[in-house]
Design brief:
alpha+beta; three-stranded antiparallel β-sheet
Length: 76
């Protein structure tokens, strides 16, 4: 397995391609653990693995995150 770091980088790129310049994504993937993964839109925390949102490891979770980002941008 490539570990969580490559998954994190893939996810980050996918989100940044979808919403260029809109997101502040921070996270840390290590080979042993998922570390943390947080997505902020306009200073609002949209997704936090640490706060219980879990890791975005399925298409449905990804789509849910995309919908949340779109909603936050619409409010922004």
């Amino acid at each position: 397995g490539a570990g969580y770091k490559s998954k994190y980088l893939q996810l980050k790129k996918k989100l940044e391609d979808e919403f260029p310049g809109c997101l502040d994504i921070c996270g840390e993937g290590t080979p042993q653990a998922t570390g943390f993964f947080e997505v902020m839109v306009a200073g609002k925390l949209i997704h936090s693995k640490k706060k219980g949102d879990g890791y975005v490891d399925t298409e449905s979770k990804f789509l849910k995150l995309v919908a949340a980002i779109k909603a936050a941008l619409a409010q922004g």
